[in-house]
Amino acid sequence: MATQLPESFTQRMQAQLGDEFEAFQQSLSEAAVSSIRVNSAKAQKPANGIPVPWCQTGFYLEERPFYTLDPFLHAGVYYVQEASSMFSEQAFRQLPDEPLKVLDLCGAPGGKSTHIASLLPENSLLVSNEVIRSRAVILSENLKKWGNPNVMVTNNDPKDFATFEGQFDVLVVDAPCSGEGLFRRDENAIAEWSPENTQLCAQRQQRILADVWPALKPGGILIYSTCTYNPGENEENLKWLNEFANVENISLPMKAEWGVTETEAGGLSGYRFYPHKTKGEGFFMAVVRKLDGQTTRMPRKMKSAAFSPASRAEKALVEGWLTGDNLDIFKLNDTLFAFPSKYAAELTWLQKGLRIVHAGVKIGEQKKKEVVPAHELALSPILKRGTFPEIELTLDDAIKFLHRDEIRPEAKERGWHLLTYRNIPLGWAKNLGNRFNSNYPKEWRIRMDITEYLAEKLEEEKAKFPIR
Length: 468
Ligand SMILES: C[S@@+](CC[C@H](N)C(=O)[O-])C[C@H]1O[C@@H](n2cnc3c(N)ncnc32)[C@H](O)[C@@H]1O
Description:
Blueprint: H1 7-17, H2 21-28, E1 34-38, E2 50-51, E3 58-61, H3 71-74, E4 78-80, H4 88-92, E5 101-104, H5 111-119, E6 125-129, H6 133-146, E7 151-154, E8 168-174, H7 187-192, H8 195-212, E9 216-226, H9 235-244, E10 247-250, E11 261-265, E12 268-273, E13 283-290, E14 308-309, H10 312-317, E15 327-332, E16 335-340, H11 344-353, E17 356-359, E18 361-367, E19 370-373, H12 375-378, E20 390-392, H13 395-402, E21 415-421, E22 424-431, E23 436-438, H14 456-462
Parallel strand pairs: 5-6, 5-8, 6-7, 8-9, 20-21
Antiparallel strand pairs: 1-3, 1-4, 2-3, 7-17, 9-13, 10-13, 11-12, 12-13, 14-15, 15-16, 16-18, 18-19, 21-22, 22-23
Helix pairs in contact: 8-9
Bound molecules: S-adenosylmethionine.
Domain SAM-dependent MTase RsmB/NOP-type: 1-291
Keywords: Cytoplasm, Methyltransferase, RNA-binding, S-adenosyl-L-methionine, Transferase
Binding site for S-adenosyl-L-methionine: 130, 157, 174
């Protein structure tokens, strides 16, 4: 970090940290740590990763790989996530092992949501929301890559959830904040910082919490987090929450060697991550239980939804494509998608009040008597392997495919093939005999010029990929 820290930030941190300030300042001049979280439905641990102690699937990497050139990143095998923010796992580990309905309110780009999707007990539902439309699209892409069918992405303002009173067992608010914890990796965060802005952030966080609060069920859990050190956006907001609502503290088990700083405000515990004490960036988290409130009953009878259960004939078109119980097939226009049967009524209800970006896993698009398999099906563990012929690609061909260049792998059969790299699905291509047609989404393709990397240089990069 070369940029000068703002004077009033430095003064506040000196007052906040006392003797520790020098070590803190020193840590800001060190390089940020690289870390990933592995998708346990697709892979195990990385070759040289050092475990992140508070997250079973989190690993620090010794050097930062050229992620864009790693097919596994595009296949949702891992997510590049800052280590401190993986701490939300500790809150989920306190919850009973029973189905949960979770709302991740400030979801994009999807670090917490992909993590939650992996942590949820069976038969749970995750609604991942993002208010900014362009960011909701990125959130949806990352969750599609992660592959869980029990997830839906919405693009709504927090107050839009107030109608669904008492519907969620867990509410995650990873709030937009002044970003002081990002100063080490993002110089823009320093440029945009001002004391006035931290106050505006604190007010906005209170508004967000107040607007969405009715959606949390009495007895439900709020996980509140920011990536800032500023007490106004952290402990002061906990105090405000304690006055605004009837809540009870939930403290998390802690190990001294993690270096997490525990704080307290109005009887509520907070957990702070400072880079001079914990291996990661700045972060704050608190967990509380809501003690009272209302729950609206889901209407028994609802007018028909935009989607409908697939007919027997439509289901027959994708017979044998899916694995996993508890999923139903639905149809929206010409699209077939899989979604948990258990939450079909919720989906009908939620779509009446919310803008749904995607729900479940798209199976494919019906074209006359055929269904063209959807890209997200290739990336989801619900795809039954062996249904389609598979072609294992070399690293060069995998990268060309992800760049949407033409590839000509060997294939005996015509029709749709599942393309894999090291047995991990990357997408689909149709063998027409003299060429392959790819249906890799244009907007997801690798955009950089890859020519200089093909062959030798790519092999060199491969040595640094986290999962080999
Ligand atoms: C800290 S980021 C979330 C990061 C995300 N949870 C993750 O782990 O990848 C905060 C998000 O809140 C969104 N946001 C901004 N203003 C908001 C508002 N008024 N209400 C709700 N969300 C807002 C931002 O667009 C941003 O995506």
